[in-house]
Amino acid sequence: MSSAPAMPATDTRRWITLVVVGLAQLMVVLDATVVNIALPSAQADLGFTDGQRQWIITAYSLAFASLLLLGGRLSDLWGRKRTFIIGLIGFAAASAFGGAAASFELLVAARALQGAFGALLAPTALAVLTTTFVIPKERARAFGVFGAIAGAGGAVGLLLGGILTEALDWRWNLYINVFIAAVALVGALLYIPFITRSGPRPKLDVPGTVLVSGALFGLVFGFSNAETDGWDSPMTWGMLAGAAILLVAFVLWQRRAAHPLLPLRIVVDRNRGAAFLSVAIAGAGMFGVFLFVTYYVQLTLGYSPIQAGLAFLPMIGMLVLAAQLGTNIFVPRFGPKVLVPIGMTLGALGMIWLTFLDASSVYAINVMPPLMVIGFAMGTIMPASMQTATLGVDPQFAGVASATVNTSQQVGGSIGTALLNTLAATAAVDYLAAHTPVTPEVGVQAALASYSTAYLWGAAFFASGAVMSALLFRRRAHGLSLSHAPAPAEEVAPAGVSH
User: Fold this and answer.
1) Is 285 left (phi over 0), alpha (psi -120 to 50) or beta?
2) What's the burial of 200, exposed, middle or buried (CB within 10 Å: 0-12/13-18/19+)?
3) Do 372 and 315 meet the contact criterion of CB atoms below 8 Å apart?
4) How many of the other CB atoms lie within 10 Å of CB of 34?
5) For residue 486, what is the DSSP state?
6) pLDDT per residue over 36-55, tens digit each?
């Protein structure tokens, strides 16, 4: 079939499309944290052990991370709208299955299914955005919103998880996705256009898919295992070593594959490579903030789950503000070479500020200000990086390029969480060993020492990101302020045109 004539979508259609893909992205991102607060209630209800509890989180992240590149490529092969709808329906069904789960095993299976369909949905949502918004000013606004959602979704998940768990039941942390998906599905059916394809249908790189999925699985599993079994565990090192071998094999295969899953030119482009690394580093720092500040306000200050979630609202507000200011004003003027290092530096300063927290700290004076600084930092980093990472990519690879952005954030979060957890636990043990006998007061101080260690290392992540982004990003991100890639006809065909 030949391509339909190019017909740019109306303004209204484009912005409703942004709402639809934003809902999908919010659902996927918040599901990485929304269940965390519900875990104690789910554990009491289903009767699983503390050791098993981690699998509720790990099952989702393993399936999500390992299948992201496959999901992104499938959106290139099947078409954005079709893949998006399949992802929405599958994610909603998996969520309903999990909400109704009568056993630990069924809940883990449902979380893995959520991760699998999330891996289909997340890159497709970003690919739809990439190919819908091609006018520079509109693209900036759209990525400002999308980047804010990507950055704030985890904090929203903590707040929503607290509200749903306290007001209703832990199962509603999963059931809520059915309602979000239903709204997004209606919008997708009405406003996301089908695409038409000219020429032969591209083929799926099966060997490349197997290699990279195995590598990502090993990477996330290895770091997750390090949190529970330690870095000296054979399973930890075995998985990480296997992941490294598979990743090298994947790169070698991509150099000779006739239909590569991820053409290396997408990754080795200097600006895009810097953007992927920036998203990974920001993801590592962001997950660290959510994890340890949540521990601090709940265990040290005695906040309820809802209060803990509300504590992050000022951070979200600053993130949204920075995202809009950056993408609408500063990125077109200065480019990511200036904006991203500034954001990384602010992130490092905010993390250092958090190290001053103690048992007598007051939220409004001691906790909220550094959270707001970190929120502004994330809002400066994420939209600029995500926009750069997908800019100028051949439309036939928009899905897999978008998947690489999501993979960077997910892998960065997994690595950051594992490293910070290990460093924090070691600091707590060292403090207890040096302060005997162990009294309740010593226990509190040991926890504070562990949090401070995590914040310092988080600051080191951001500081390294500031140096890296300043060195790698080109002085001017080509195309961020001037469009050089007109919308491809097959991506802006009118609604209702089918394959």
Assistant:
1) alpha
2) exposed
3) yes
4) 27
5) P
6) 777 778 888 888 876 677 78
